[in-house]
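Changelog note: in this version the structure field was regenerated for every chain. One regenerated record is shown below for reference.
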Amino acid sequence: MNWERDDSSTVYGYKIKNGSCPIFVTYEKKDNIASSTKYEDVFLANNLFSWMTRSRVSLDSEETQKLIHYRENGLKILLFIKKSDGEGSDFYYMGLAEPVHWEQT
């Protein structure tokens, strides 16, 4: 991301910083993880991905509003995915993402 320092240990799935928001998704979740982190991330089509923010983040939160209004604030949303933790630590860059629908669940 060419950030001035390594923030990889504090990303926790995604982080908004320096006009960008990289999102890192592990597609297949382990069965033994906490239910609060069993996000229902799924491809709905080859160019449509359903993704969830961290638990306890509401639609009214500052970070969610930045994602929703990404165009107005010039935020670049980048999607990275890996199949599972068994695949190692490398994520694949899927491209720029654009929010098209959001709802509180």
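Spot check on this record: The helical segments are 62-68, 70-73. The chain is about 10% helix and 25% strand.
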